[in-house]
């Protein structure tokens, strides 16, 4: 098994600690956190080994799981790569695109694998939808969250919307052509509500809305394509697929038939896939172990994490235009 350590023991870091300790794909070595008092409490409560400095932890592991604030990602990931340690790094990959591109080159030079923690790729509803999404031409995504001070040090685009940016980029096989966006700060010093319209070179348009000051939580995306509509509810873990096909000459009494202005008749039917329950965080961590052991490409590569960050930064820049 691969020996793994965790950097960062905050809210999400504690979840990673527990899952890696339970995982059958990893041998959990220990963790490091800059807050020594907090780390010692975790060590005492859960029995995880606390390392007093990051460098000592790196010497003991094959893989490091970086679950720190984004501002520390670049420095710590760089240290890990230079030490020859594979790295899993939470989203966004780094604070800037330039930093992310440097990590990509370093990883190539040191023959190190990396994966970015875009966990929605592993959401069972999205996984079930992947095979149903084919050349979408219009996408609408809403990601709304009740206010939580955690994460408000960055714009809502990097906090929430980047999940949908990555998911959309993974299914739209085209380059970004143009971005229009607006953002509003309500409580934080950075935008709490944002809307972006992304146009792709193949004609696809994606309309994304993110808010962290909503009265209810919502994480839903809709994909419209030729003769089909796919709805993915990331929060409720439900996928709905509505398809159209040429109507039969003699449809049964319960068939749903539409007729357009030209007289063409289409039958509407549902093709909802089965949702397989999983732990998305555990899956993303364990598939990374499999990619290392099998020498295959991780599901969310450093390059893909960088592209999601690049688009997010373009959206933020568009706020001022």
UniProtKB/TrEMBL annotation:
**Pfam families registered for this protein in UniProt:** GFO_IDH_MocA, GFO_IDH_MocA_C3
The UniProt record lists the Gfo/Idh/MocA-like oxidoreductase N-terminal domain at: 2-118
**Membrane-spanning segments:** none
- SUPFAM superfamilies per the record? Glyceraldehyde-3-phosphate dehydrogenase-like, C-terminal domain (SSF55347), NAD(P)-binding Rossmann-fold domains (SSF51735)
> Sorted alphabetically, which InterPro entries does this protein's record hold?
Gfo/Idh/MocA-like_OxRdtase_N, Gfo/Idh/MocA_Oxidoreductases, GFO_IDH_MocA-like_dom, NAD(P)-bd_dom_sf
Q: Where is the GFO/IDH/MocA-like oxidoreductase domain?
A: 156-216
Top-rank taxon of the source lineage equals: Bacteria
What PANTHER family has UniProt attached to this entry? BILIVERDIN REDUCTASE A
Full protein name: Gfo/Idh/MocA family oxidoreductase
Source organism: Psychroflexus lacisalsi
